[in-house]
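Supplementary Data S3. Sequence and structure tokens for construct A.
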Amino acid sequence: MSSKILAITIAIMGIIYIFLIPHDPVGIKITFKLIPMLLIILFASIQPPGLPKSYKTLIILGLFICMLADGLIYWFIIGLITFLIGHIIYIFAFRRIKKNTIPKWAAALLLLYGLIMIIWIAGTLWTEGEFVLVVAVVLYIGVILTMGWHAFQTGNRFAIMGAILFIFSDSILAINKFIVAIPYEHALVMLSYYGAQFLFSYSIFSHYSSTRNNLLK
């Protein structure tokens, strides 16, 4: 299967899950939720690796862990921890292809975002006495910001866009769960989430093209 056909199939299956699959029965919903991720992993696996080859390996491992988290998120803390592991793997992946320091504007925006989210979400949970969730949320925000930070350092625009979409997706999810209901939350979260994971998978090819061009110079 070619990359283009696979990418179209990923988009179709993602749309089917987001807009057509009912909430019940849960087993069917989880199954359809995982199909786009399985296809994204397949898409990543057929991309040629750049140097170092470990970047591709780590991205695929991160995708797989996040796919597990997709099924486990119905048990929120377990799913959160699994996603945390996935982000840590992405951090290691991005560190493998680090090229530059993060732009000052990006660093400032990430730090400002983190401060706002901690005060808003963790602060709200603290006033409600949800101290375990406070720790989990603060830790998660710290890790996903670190992931975004390292994505910017790669100079890989697909990794950067993927990280931004991932942060957006998790922000909508957290605000909807802990603060206030957001209209079309499910569609916003899943469209940006699948988009982020696909961009991470495509960043493998982008990295390959970059390293190949450098070798040919």
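Construct B, processed identically:
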Amino acid sequence: MKIAVTGGSGKLGRHVVRRLTEEGHQVMNLDRTGERSPGLAIVDLRNYGQVLDVLFSLDSRHSGFDAVVHLGAVPAPGLMPDAATFENNMLSTYNVFQACRRAGIKKVVYASSETVLGLPFDVDPPYIPV
């Protein structure tokens, strides 16, 4: 399969790209950063036009994706203001799903975030007297 991985330069994305490549898939990393290579397309997922361009094949590297693995996001709270994290993660996810729909890509894997459950707290919950 020809698979696009958003956030393929990140902590999880690097492993996904490597594993898919080892399994014999053609993989394109779509990320804002990363080591320059033929398998990397620099894309700002917050920009719908850029996402459409890469999924609609501006050149032969990007043509005819069979699937997208969407991992591109701000990975944890506290790296930037909450509103900026929300804007980045929601807008980029919306853009990826919309562009996949427009490009006819029917297989999308969305992994959310390793911190989706929140930050761990070592605080006892308040109890109500009985």
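The domain at 2-110 is CATH 3.40.50.720 (Rossmann fold). The first strand starts at residue 2 and ends at 6.
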